[in-house]
Automatic annotation (TrEMBL):
Residues 6-307 form the Histidine-specific methyltransferase SAM-dependent domain. The keyword Methyltransferase applies. Keywords: Methyltransferase, Transferase. Pfam families: Methyltransf_33. It comes from Belliella aquatica. SUPFAM superfamilies: S-adenosyl-L-methionine-dependent methyltransferases (SSF53335). This is Dimethylhistidine N-methyltransferase.
Length: 308
């Protein structure tokens, strides 16, 4: 059984049906996500770019070493990171940029973009699952700055997020740094609107996951029988996305029948939000001795710098 099928069957036969959010991003899903990032309600990319433009110099001034490996986990196309790298290049430090991503294709786009903007910067992409490929980083003796941008930490439930930050800490030597993008707790209406846009783009993004399962796993989901629902809990800081079955129905996936009761839900995504105080606590729990937060003007988003 292939991994996609295995994950789908395992998730949909659980007591609370789930689908892993990593499967959102087929070619069509990635295109829809670009639409989401351009939505008026989806504030995150604009906030992060504002911080990179206004605070990159201040972030870099905290890092005293003359030599630096800038390692980016889940680097993507590098279109935001290049803002930071340009500022880093101005410091005169001896830099190596190491973008890591599961997709070799996106890393090639990343490398070409960075090289076109900063031809003298050393770029050493590492394709593959960074859960495995990151072991090679321990062999590098230069001071390190690990980047984990774009609120990716929010895709982990709280316990898993802490586990992941400990994993990053283990890659570092004393004095190394970790810069993490974090979506902050704010007016709950603003967060809820980001996952329930009035144009219905998020709904299309969520339903595309069922369409992908139909196409790739020989399934027969009737998309009109499911509705998108996004909710935010200000107590836990969790924004959750669901697909809701609008009727009692049975779906077949690769010959296996899965029953849905009317109004039964599939949890497709978690996006965890944090306060600055919670980030301080997590830093202390995961082996970092110091942290500092750089936020946008509205205080919606943080690039939080941790030192081992």
């Amino acid at each position: 059984m292939n991994q996609f099928l295995n994950d789908v069957i395992s998730g949909l036969t659980s007591v609370q049906k789930t689908l892993p959010s990593k499967y959102f991003y087929d070619e069509k899903g990635s295109r829809i996500f670009q639409e989401i990032m351009a939505l008026e309600e989806y504030y995150l990319p604009e906030c992060e770019v504002e911080i990179l433009q206004n605070s990159s110099q201040a972030i870099l001034s905290e890092i005293q070493s003359d030599e630096l490996d800038i390692i980016e986990l889940g680097a993507g196309d590098g279109s935001k990171t290049v803002i930071f790298l340009k500022e880093a290049f101005k410091t005169g430090k001896s830099l190596t940029y190491i973008p890591m991503d599961i997709s070799p294709d996106i890393l090639e786009i990343n490398r070409e973009l960075i090289k076109s903007e900063l031809p003298e910067l050393k770029v050493k992409p590492i394709p593959g699952d960074y859960g495995h490929t990151s072991e090679s980083l321990k062999e590098r003796k230069s001071p390190k700055l690990v980047l984990f941008m774009g609120s990716n930490i929010g895709n982990f439930p709280r316990e898993k997020a802490t586990e992941f930050i400990r994993f990053v800490n283990d890659l570092l030597q004393n004095g190394d740094f970790f810069l993490m993008g974090v979506d902050l707790k704010k007016n709950p209406h603003i967060i809820r609107a980001a996952y329930n846009d009035k144009e219905g783009v998020t709904k299309r993004f969520n339903l595309n996951l069922l369409e992908r399962i139909n196409r790739e796993l020989d399934a027969d989901f009737e998309l009109s029988s499911f509705e998108h629902y996004g909710v935010y809990n200000p107590l836990s800081g969790s924004a959750l996305s669901f697909l809701v079955s609008l009727q009692d129905q049975t779906v077949t996936i690769s010959g296996q029948k899965i029953h849905f009761e009317k109004f039964e839900t599939i949890n497709t995504e978690i996006s965890q939000k944090y306060s600055l105080k919670e980030l301080d606590q997590i830093g202390a729990q995961t082996g970092f001795s110091w942290d500092k937060h750089f936020t946008d003007e509205k205080g919606y988003f943080s690039l939080s710098l941790f030192r081992k």
